Amino acid sequence: MDILHVAFECAPIAKVGGLGDVLGALPKFLNRRGVNSAVFMPRFGDAHVDPASLTLVHEGRLRYRGRVLHYRLWQQAAHVLGFPVYLWEEPVHFERPGIYQDPATGRDFPDQGDRFFVFQQGLLTILKAQVLKPDLLHLHDHHAALIPVWLREDPAYQDWATLPLVLTVHNAEHQGRYDWSIWKEIGVPVARPEDLQHHGQLNALKAGMLWADAVTTVSPGYARELQERDDMAAGLREVFQRVAFKMRGILNGIDPEVWNPATDPLLFAPYTAETLEGKQQNKQALCRALGLDPTQPLVIFIGRLMREKGIDLLVRGLERFLPRHPDVSVVVLGTGLPEYHAALETLKQRLENFDAVHRLVLRFEFNNTLAHQLYAAADILLMPSRVEPCGLNQLYAMTYGTVPVVHAVGGLRDTVMPWNPHTQTGTGFRFESFTPKAMLQALQQALLTYRQPKLWQQLQRNGMQQDWSWDRSAQEYIALYQSLIPVTSK
Ligand code: ADP
User: Fold this and answer.
1) For each successive 10 residues of the chain (490 residues), what is the average pLDDT?
2) Residue 155: which region, alpha, beta or left (left: phi > 0; alpha: psi -120 to 50)?
3) How far apart are the CA of 366 and the centre of ligand 1, in A?
4) Which of 22, 30, 92, 305 is surrounded by the fewest CB atoms within 10 Å?
């Protein structure tokens, strides 16, 4: 069985968030279970690839909106990441640095829609040229969600009309909404145009869900929320209900070859659940580098500075929390909306009055090394997400003995089990209501436990002993693929 994943990110080649982590790991674990898996993605101008590992497999031309575009398809050798990656190079839309946003402005590329459309057309052209012959396409997010419509509706692709199609929704907030006129220009006529539309606009995610053979999302909890809660489904709840018969939640995993405190080359010192003093060395080294006191509790936030990550709650909560807890330090690592950068800067300035300014470190950058070092050094990871499809940060945190304090939504509810001091079970702290008060109560509970070292170590070990490896989830995907692929091609 040959599976081709179609996605905009794949770590470490190009990563903005969890989507990149998933594509960097899942195909490797599928291959290990005997399911040939490869990734098809754009070759961005700043992609982390070694040109020496690439082979040119095909080149050709594509007509798009009245223009002829030249493309090349490169294959990164399978030994580099554990699976082959096909990088689609097309200079007009992809030679520049940046995945979704222009790094110079921090804003979405003005031709973002064209980038997604042309990428999908690129894949279709490659299929038609018979360069790649998958038994199933696994499409990720709205960036690839129009492919099912073209394959099923355009007579030009009738040879692929029965190719099984799986769409994974990594985040329902991002839907790919465009003026309807674009579909008239680049699309194909369909019997029920309203299935492609939401509020009169072309909606790529909705279309993908309706046309794909199966829909998955990245945790069972989020799958339920999408069908039950308007605020989670970002307007598409009815569509999620409509596809419920072919939809399931499969929890993301983590790649222990990248995320393991015993072997992580980015750490100051390795450690395990049995040698937690090594974690202390990481804390000392990192606190020294950041000018913080290593003998005091260290709370971190890592993630995209976006509304869905609850940055407004983070700011409001920290404003109350830091002055009241003169011994706690907080590090925020993230990039995102300029208004959130500004809100955090303003918070820091306000803290001057409380002598707390030096205990809040802000790093507005994407820094993978620092992220690894923070997971290793910190005591508590704060994750006040408003919406969280799966969340990987809390899984990394637990693996590194850092205790998560999370808003109980989506994958966070599925993966962080509340600490019970009586039975000494559980892996973290959850808060139910999305308010500063609830968040601070959970943080205070965590700090109280932190001050009881024996209990805290037990809590850390509980988290470190969980198995979040991709193996289990890969098996669930394989069962899904098998249910869709005709027996003759398995
Ligand atoms: P999402 O996919 O919604 O962004 P996840 O929790 O699933 O959230 O995944 C986030 C991933 O991105 C994690 O690997 C996290 O460590 C990483 N990450 C996010 N922001 C940064 C940053 N500024 N620097 C380094 N890594 C980051």
Assistant:
1) 97 94 97 97 97 97 97 98 98 97 91 98 97 97 98 95 96 97 97 97 98 98 96 96 98 93 98 97 98 97 96 97 95 96 96 85 96 98 97 97 98 98 98 98 98 98 95 95 80
2) alpha
3) 9
4) 92
- What single DSSP character describes residue 145? T
CA-to-CA distance for 463 and 456, rounded, in angstroms? 11
Indicate whether residue 17 lines ligand 1 (CB < 6 A): yes
Q: CB of 383 within 8 A of CB of 413? A: no
- Tokens 């398809």 locate to 73
Pocket test for ligand 1, best of 99, 335, 393 (most atoms within 8 A of CB): 393
Query: Any idea what the Cα angle at residue 184 is, between residues 180 and 189, rounded to 5°?
Result: 110
CATH code for the domain defined by 2-253+471-489 = 3.40.50.2000
Residue with tokens 């709840």: 237
Residue span(s) of the chain under CATH 3.40.50.2000 come to 2-253+471-489, 277-467
Say if CB 36 and CB 410 are below 8 A apart.
no
The C-alpha atoms of residue 290 and residue 229 are separated, in whole angstroms, by 41
Pocket mutation for ligand 1, best pick of 386, 392, 398, 415 (most atoms within 8 Å of C-beta): 392
Top CATH class of 277-467 equals alpha beta
